[in-house]
Amino acid sequence: MIGRWGIAERAADVPETRAEEIHDDRDRAVEALFSEHRRSLIRLAVLLGADDAEDIVSEAFYHLYRRWRRLRSTDAALAYLRSVVINRTRMRLRHLQVARRQLQRDSGESPAVSSEALALLRDDQRAVVAALASLPDRQREALVLRYWMELREREIADAMGISPGAVKTHVSRGMAALTRAMEERR
Amino acid sequence: MNDRGTDERLRDALQALAAGVPETPEDFRAASSQWRRRERRRRIVLAVLATVVFVVADGLALWALNQADPDAHVIFSDPAPGVTAPQDPSAVPPVRAGQP
C-alpha cells in the first residue's frame, strides 16, 4: 500500500531487492537533495514564518533519511521534504502563538517573521508580509507555495496533504484577504 | 487594487524576503553523521524500552504465579460440558424384578 508522498505504509510492501538498491543509493540521493534543495527549503520555512528554519529543515532531512527505504522515488522525496517543513513550521508557529500571545497583543504585530528579515524590506513589501502573516496557516502556506515556489495545484496539494480543490479555496480566500488588507492600509 | 496587482506585490515581497535569508554553510557530512547518531540513539532507546517492558511483564507474571496457592485449582475446576460426575452407588435405589 502506498501512502502520501509515495511512502509505502509497510516495509513489506517494498520488494527486497529494490529496498537494498534504495538503501545503497540513499546517501548519494539524500546528499544530492541536500545540496540542491536545502537552501530553498530554509527560505520556504522563513517565508512561512519559522524562527528556526535551519532546525526545521535539518529535522525534515533526518525524517527523510530515516524513511528512505520506504520511499518510492526522488520526486516523492522532495514532496515529502516540503510537507515535513510545512507541518513542522505550522507546529512551531502554534507553539509560539501560545507562548507569545500576550506579547503579540501588546505589540499588535505578528511574531511570525523576524525583525531582521523585515528590516531589509521596503514599506510596501513589509505591509504585504505583515498581511500575509496575519492570514490563517493554511492560506499562508498555499499562497507561499503558489506565488513563491510557483508550484502547481497538485504539487501544493501533495505538500499540504489536502485536495487540489481545497488548495484553490485557500489560494482564492487568501488572495481576497490580502487584497482587502492592502486596500484598508491605503 | 485588483487581484493582479496583489499577485505582483505578493511575489515581489516574497522574493525580497527570501533574498534576505542569510546564507548558511552546507555541510552534508556533519549533518549526515548527526542523523546517524540520532538514529542509533533512537534504536538503542527503543531496544532498552522493549527490554524493560519485557522484563517487567515477566517479573509481574512470575510474582503473580508465585503468590498463587498451589492447592487451589482455579483452572478446570468445573466439570466439562457433557461429562457427568460419578454417582454414589448407595444413593441409587435398587431395581426390583417385576417392577415397571
Description:
Chain B: This is DUF3040 domain-containing protein. Chain B: Residues 77-100 are annotated as: Disordered. Chain B: The chain crosses the membrane at residues 44-65. The complex is a heterodimer of chains A (186) and B (100). With 186 residues, chain A is mainly alpha-helical. Chain A has 2 domains: 1-111, Orthogonal Bundle (Rna Polymerase Sigma Factor, Chain: A); 113-186, Arc Repressor Mutant, subunit A (Orthogonal Bundle), CATH 1.10.10. Chain A is built from 9 helices and no strands. The radius of gyration of chain A is 18 Å and the shape is globular. Chain B has 100 residues and is an all-alpha fold. Chain B has a domain at 26-66. The model of chain B has no long low-confidence stretch (mean pLDDT 79).
In sequence order, what are the helices and strands of chain A, one letter per element? HHHHHHHHH
The number of strands of chain A is: 0
**Major sheet attributes of chain A:** none
Q: Can you tell me the overall shape of chain B?
A: elongated
Low-confidence stretches of chain A: none
Region (Disordered) (chain B): 77-100
Protein name (chain B): DUF3040 domain-containing protein
Transmembrane segments (chain B): 44-65
Keywords (chain B): Membrane, Transmembrane, Transmembrane helix
